[in-house]
Amino acid sequence: MGTDLDRDYFISRCGAHAFYTPLKIGLSSLPAWQKAVHQERFSINRWIQTYLECTTYEISCPSLRDPALAPEGKTGLIVRTLMDYDLVRQILEEGRYEAFKQLSIDTITQVLNSTIFPGLRDKILYSICSTPVTIERETGNTQGAITGWSFINHPIPSVDQIKKISQSVLTPMDDIYQCRQWTFSPSGLPISILTGKLAADAAMKKLNRTHL
Ligand SMILES: Cc1cc2nc3c(=O)[nH]c(=O)nc-3n(C[C@H](O)[C@H](O)[C@H](O)COP(=O)(O)OP(=O)(O)OC[C@H]3O[C@@H](n4cnc5c(N)ncnc54)[C@H](O)[C@@H]3O)c2cc1C
Predict the structure, then answer these.
(1) Does a structural domain hold residue 169?
(2) Which structural domain, as residue segments, surrounds residue 197?
(3) For atom 31 of ligand 1, which residue has the closest CA?
(4) Is there an atom of ligand 1 within 6 Å of 203 CB?
(5) Residue 129 CA, ligand 1 centroid: distance in Å
(6) Which of 83, 85, 112, 206 has the most neighbouring CB atoms within 10 Å?
(7) Is the CB of 138 inside a 6 Å radius of any atom of ligand 1?
(8) Confidence at 212, pLDDT banded by 50, 70, 90
(9) Are residues 119 and 189 in the same domain?
(10) Pairing of strands 2-3, 78-80
(11) What distance in angstroms lies between residue 147's CA and the mean position of ligand 1's atoms?
(12) Residue 150 domain-assigned (yes or no)
């Protein structure tokens, strides 16, 4: 969200990074969406609204760390929550994706406006919504996974012990090394960078040895 609010507004309310749960009743109070989806359209929309009222949000304001990231007097907000890929995929296939994104924007705005950010709604300059389907399209990650292998894999199909991380860059082929988020579990940006460095080091070592 781009907002016409000064960074001072957000400093006291959430700071540069915060987790916020608007209601304490918990997501387990909701039935599975698969039960609501086969009813009238209103039911699944109501389910999505209730989910967005009860879920936990991760809120980041990058310009609170670096004011150069937003124009004077304005602040950008990244508001994130988890969402089931299968639900979004089904909505996409039914041709209701744009309406779903607008419903999500409207509900999230309403939730934040009536709780942690009073007056936010009138100050929003624009909102962009991305979903698990967006992440899948942009990154190729299965089901829009935000990072690496699912923890429900037994065994995890990569090196998963930190002591053995140097082995994560090896492949069955002698002269090919690998890196990035799929090469070690659990992953994330630090692991992607670290495995990149380990792979580069391994390649350099091999090249130097070959030259000798
Ligand atoms: C919303 C979100 C929040 C996150 N938060 C955190 C966090 O707080 N901390 C953290 O450590 N990690 C976080 N992550 C995870 C982190 O972003 C990833 O683990 C990391 O970016 C993975 O780096 P990567 O280089 O392996 O893959 P990516 O950054 O996904 O890069 C892969 C690239 O390959 C391209 N590509 C895919 N398929 C092809 C193809 N066939 N041909 C050519 N190009 C292709 C994609 O377009 C993409 O540019 C988050 C991820 C998301 C989505």
Answers:
(1) yes
(2) 162-211
(3) 139
(4) no
(5) 18
(6) 112
(7) yes
(8) low
(9) no
(10) unpaired
(11) 7
(12) no
